[in-house]
Prior knowledge:
The protein has 320 residues and is α/β, with parallel strands linked by helices. It contains 12 helices and 11 strands. The strands form 2 sheets. It has an 8-stranded parallel β-sheet. A 3-stranded antiparallel β-sheet has the order 7-11-10. Strand 10 and strand 11 form a beta hairpin. Helix 1 runs parallel beside helix 2, helix 1 packs parallel to helix 12 and helix 7 packs across helix 12. The radius of gyration is 18 Å and the shape is globular.
Amino acid sequence: xxxxxxxxxxxxxxxxxxxxxxxxxxxxxxxxxxxxxxxxxxxxxxxxxxxxxxxxxxxxxxxxxxxxxxxxxxxxxxxxxxxxxxxxxxxxxxxxxxxxxxxxxxxxxxxxxxxxxxxxxxxxxxxxxxxxxxxxxxxxxxxxxxxxxxxxxxxxxxxxxxxxxxxxxxxxxxxxxxxxxxxxxxxxxxxxxxxxxxxxxxxxxxxxxxxxxxxxxxxxxxxxxxxxxxxxxxxxxxxxxxxxxxxxxxxxxxxxxxxxxxxxxxxxxxxxxxxxxxxxxxxxxxxxxxxxxxxxxxxxxxxxxxxxxxxxxxxxxxxx
Length: 320
């Protein structure tokens, strides 16, 4: 399936940077786009609400300036993530700004709504909806999403439990549109593997946390460098939705990672209550692919490495 015009021939490597709660700010988004991958951020990261317009204006102006100065290698488009769940009281306000600034790509999470999709389509933008299973994938497309982000086992933050092989295969049985894969992707080889099993693009998050431009606690970044897949814990205690978190951060928060209680899915608490306040701020989300992250580096260096690995892996595959 050909990529939509917003993405066609705009990427140095087929990667979309995932929106990282609290961590993704204008600096990270702009660096990713200049390096040739889609940079994204959650609208809710801009606090208070009026800060969102400041961010959108800055991102738009800096990327426009880059494109004028580098017509031979224009920046990749950027994306904004909208939490569609009813707990998001800012959704209407943030969507008005999304339409005003004609955000090229909108990533929707925790609910699919036709009116949100229609608003993005009104100015020519595209909507990618993240899902953890085939049921929600069908619902998203039925309600007008343009593409899907398959959040498979091993992904950071709110993640599913289905193998990427099974999830991509089942979706591709009925959907031939834009399909992204998320889950333990931190190398160029993994990006190529995602395409080999049927995804168009890789969706990368945890590796980008350990970059100089990320708005993450330096201890968080170092913990990623020092950890591997064995240090990831899957729990729904912190927000009511299952997700993957760094075990050492759970320990540092005074909890036993081997004896966590179950959360209540009907009481999603994104920042509410004592446990909710610990999530993301003190208890850090991360995916299983962090064993490939060996140092804190700039986005440009990270993307350059991934591009080299991707091209090398592709050449070797073709040679065989």
